[in-house]
Amino acid sequence: MRTINRLVLAGLLALAPLASFAEEPASGDPDVTIRQEGDKTIQEYRVNGFLYAIKVIPKGGKPYFLVRADGSDGNFVRSDYPDMLIPAWEIFKW
User: Fold this and answer.
1) How far apart are alpha carbons 25 and 4 in whole angstroms?
2) What is the pLDDT of residue 92?
3) Backbone Cα Rg of the chain
């Protein structure tokens, strides 16, 4: 019994330095960034730096979500109208 206790204690002491190198597990909670753009409030939802959804809250309208269409950058669709593509280019700029 005494030998087992010594082996367990030696094992714990040997593994103690490794505990300081352990990384924190990635959290499943999203990071939400809120910003104002004109008369809209925009909330960006990210997990581990990956932007997966945008909530747009217009001042005089109903809020809606933009979600990734196919996993590539910049292709978002409205969650309530998935067939409507959101253009990612600009025609005019003042």
Assistant:
1) 32
2) 76
3) 24
